[in-house]
Amino acid sequence: MFSKYAFFLVVCLVGMFFLGFNDIKKTCRQVGLTRKNGVGCVCHNEFHSPNVNITIAGPDSVALGETANYTLTVYGGPDSAAGMNVAVLRGSLSSLDTFLVVLDSELTCTAPLRPSETGLIRWNFSYTAPFIPGADTLYAVANSVNLNGIPTEDEWNFGENVVLTAYEPNAVSEEENSLPSFRLISSYPNPFNASTNIRFLQTEPAHISLRIFDISGKVVATLLENQWMDAGTYEVPFARTFIASGLYIVYFQTPSSSLSTKIILLK
C-alpha cells in the first residue's frame, strides 16, 4: 500500500508534469508572433528580453524560385529549452528538422528544443525565393523557458529582421524563349479557364523540373520534379479549379539553366 509520503510524491510528480505541459503548450505550435504580424510571445511574459539572442545564418541572396538553407540559433535566458516562430514576407519556408513544422505559411516548433552540447539551440529550415525580384524579409521570435510551468519566469525576444535579395539568375530571357536543352513551344489555351497544356521541345536529354507559381512566389503545382527526359516534344497538362483567377508563372529548370513564362487563369 502507498504511504502518505508516496502518495504526496505522486501528486507532486503529476503536478510537475502538467506544469511542464503548460510550458510546452505555450511554447510550441504558435504562429503570428513575429514583427511581421504579431506582438511577440506575450503569453510567457509581457515584455521582450535582451537576454535572449536570436540569429539566422544563411545566404543573403537567392535566385528567383531557388531554395537555400538557413539555421536559426537561440541562446541566453533561462535556457532549459526554447521555442520559435519564423515568418517570411514574400517567399516560402520549409522545415528541415523533425520538430519543426509549417503552419499558416510560418515555421514553428512542435516541442521545446533543449540545448546541444555546445549550449546552443538550433533549428534548420529552407527558404524559397519568390519569382518577383527584389528584397524579401525573414522575421523571427523565440522564447527561452525553464519548463517549471510559470510562464512569467520565462523570457523571449525578437530577432533582427533578415533582409534577403531575390535576384534574376543569369539565364536566357523569356523574350528569347529558348535554352540550350529545351524550348517552350506554347501554353494553349492561354488565357485558360479550367486547364491548359504546356508544350515544350527537349533538344537533348536532361533532368527537368516544371512548377507553377503564383505572383507571390508560392508553388501551386509541381508538374515535373527532376524527371529524366529524352530529347523530344512533350505536352504537360495543368488543370486547377481551386486556385484564384490571375497571373501564374510556369517555371522550367534543368541542372544548368532555367526559363519562366506566364499563363493567365480566367474563371
Description:
- With 267 residues, the protein is mainly beta.
- It folds into two domains: 27-167, Immunoglobulin-like (Sandwich); 182-265, Immunoglobulin-like, CATH 2.60.40.1930.
- 9% of the residues lie in helices and 47% in strands.
- It has one helix spanning 4-27; strands at 53-57, 61-63, 67-75, 81-88, 92-95, 100-103, 106-109, 121-128, 134-145, 155-158, 162-167, 182-188, 195-202, 206-214, 219-229, 232-239, 246-253, 258-265.
- The strands form four sheets. Strands 2, 4, 6, 7, 9, 10 and 11 form a seven-stranded mixed beta sheet that branches. It has a four-stranded antiparallel beta sheet with strand order 1-3-8-5, with no helix packed on it.
- Strand 6 (100-103) and strand 7 form a beta hairpin.
- The protein is elongated, with a radius of gyration of 24 Å.
For the residues shown, what is the average pLDDT? 80
Number of domains: 2
For the termini, the CA-CA separation is 73 Å
**CATH homologous superfamily designation of the largest domain:** Reeler domain
Tally of DSSP β-strands? 18
User: H/E order of the elements?
Assistant: HEEEEEEEEEEEEEEEEEE
The poorly predicted ranges are 4-26, 171-180
CATH architecture type of the largest domain: Sandwich
Class by alpha and beta content: mainly beta
Summarize the structure.
The chain has one helix at residues 4-27, and strands at 53-57, 61-63, 67-75, 81-88, 92-95, 100-103, 106-109, 121-128, 134-145, 155-158, 162-167, 182-188, 195-202, 206-214, 219-229, 232-239, 246-253, 258-265. It has 267 residues and is mainly beta. It folds into two domains: 27-167, Immunoglobulin-like; 182-265, Macroglobulin (MG2) domain (Immunoglobulin-like).
